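It is worth pausing here to work through a concrete case rather than discussing structure prediction in the abstract. The textbook approach is simple: state the sequence, then state the predicted structure, then interpret. We follow exactly that order.
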Amino acid sequence: MEALRRGALAEATPLLSPTMVRVAPLEGVAETVGLEAIMANAHRLTADYDIHEVTADGPLLGDGQFAVKFTFDQTHRPSGVRRTARKVTLYTVSGGRIVREEVAYVDPPAA
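Step two, the predicted structure:
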């Protein structure tokens, strides 16, 4: 969580299974499989944005799962529109690594 709060995604990457599954239907692809494909999707989704701040609230712990609420302060470069986007992600852990993430958007991604 501390790595996510600092925006240090590279520090969190070793905790992700290389075969993890991301379920995020509002992102245009219902399910993405594999860490490489998930990272490519993240790059696609953020390519036109300047991310000013990310806050991560949580984790909310469950049995083999935890949830995190993310809030993004971001500007869409082509339009200059600055907005806040929020999502809740449920992570499933197996063998000490995150194997699945399911994303629910409070504010759907901009088209």
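Step three, interpretation. The chain has a mean pLDDT of 90. Residues 74 and 83 are 6 Å apart (CA to CA).
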